[in-house]
Amino acid sequence: MAYVALHMKYSVLQVESILFKTASRNIIPNWEGGQYEGDDATRFEALRLAMELGVDYVDIELKVADKFISFISGSKPDKCKLIVSSHNYQSTPSCEELADLVARIQAVGADIVKIATTATDIVDVSRMFQVMVHCQVPMIGLVMSEKGLMSRVLSPKFGGYLTFGTIDATKLSASGQPTIEELLDIYNIRHIGPDTKVLGLIANPVKQSKSPILHNKCLQSVGYNAVYLPLLADDLARFLSTYSSPDFSGFSCSLPFKVDAVQCCHEHDPIAKSIGAINTIIRRPDGKLVGYNTDYIGAISAIEDGIGGPGSKDAAVSPLSGRLVVVVGAGGAGKAIAYGAKEKGARVVVANRTYEKAVSLAAAVGGHALRLAELETFRPEEGMILANATSLGMYPNVDGTPIPKKALSFYDVVFDVVYAPKVTRLLREAEESGVKVVSGVEMFVRQAMGQFERFTGIEAPESLMREIAAKYT
């Protein structure tokens, strides 16, 4: 592959020709995981011509680096840097194996070492970071797949020579590759350095979340030196113990980790401890992890304002007082809403796919439990409030809903924690049934405000958060 920075003295035809031969086509050979099936001589000639035309970099695979260097007979222009690369599409080797690979690439005469591996778990990226930060020569270290995204964004923090972005999101050249626009505008990569703090959303799935856009734009607006990443993890405890540096200073937790987070934290805010779920983790300078829950106030205040209008959350008596709140879901969000509703004087019913979990949560808040199927006919009184605390209806499974449309007319207000899409099937059918609805976007913004203030110690820019949420959800 060639990285093209062509001089103006060449004609348009020459430029188009070399771009076609080196940049517009993937000429990484198929034995290295690429698409090129031709012979090395043709490929080498294309790269030699690219060098002659003035490209800044030429990338050749370690396996044929000696052969290519002999082919060009030492005629590489001083301006052109030779990247020698190795790609592993199955895994990320140990630190020792990666260091050995760096030495082998150096030995063939590379100006820049490039190693691309694959993450089967997000903790694999830590090994690449360890090798990069101690490497004594220019190095590009990338870990492919969605789980390896932070290797690309945090490359400047750990001494990476450069990183890669695609111009077109529909034409990725490697798994997990962000767009140039995302790198520059969302992750603010030009300003990432060794002192940049790392924040992020630990979840599975995570790519549907708008939290990285929201938090990064707000961090930039207040000049706080941090970047917020989507972190696709399989095991919360393993992630937190692997990335234990103080620079990894704060995390949002979402499905399925909000309950697990309680066991992972050394200390807990009293509200989070009472709820039994955590959506915000702060790492103190001494390394201790402290857990908080901002879902509680985010969801409850949104429902209160939805019932009684803006400002109702500040009334002396909550509009939830005395009402029957039906919470669907007994996970982290369900726990927060059930706890909050009880604290505001509501009576609580919990419905869940796994009935035993509904029973457990209902007992914790002095409420009653239902099987999910019972919601179809459950109508003990008028004026009930329904709160969906499950991921049903979340992108990409937008046809999901926790309750049949015919049962929605039993409720005065329907709230959905899902905010992507902004109008879920549940909310759409509730509106069609004449029921007042409260979007998950409200909870999203309000809980994010609490998180931002925990992360930074700075008051959250609420108006900017609302502007971003309106634009991107």
From TrEMBL:
Gene3D superfamilies: Aldolase class I, Leucine Dehydrogenase, chain A, domain 1, NAD(P)-binding Rossmann-like Domain. Residues 201-281 form the Shikimate dehydrogenase substrate binding N-terminal domain. It is an enzyme of class 1 (oxidoreductase). One of its GO terms (biological process) is amino acid biosynthetic process. Keywords: Amino-acid biosynthesis, Aromatic amino acid biosynthesis, NADP, Oxidoreductase. Its EC number is 1.1.1.25. The keyword Disulfide bond does not apply. It comes from the Eukaryota. GO terms for molecular function: 3-dehydroquinate dehydratase activity; NADP binding; shikimate 3-dehydrogenase (NADP+) activity. Residues 318-378 form the Quinate/shikimate 5-dehydrogenase/glutamyl-tRNA reductase domain. Residues 440-467 form the SDH C-terminal domain. Signal peptide: none annotated. NCBIfam families: aroD, aroE. This is shikimate dehydrogenase (NADP(+)). It comes from Oryza brachyantha (malo sina).
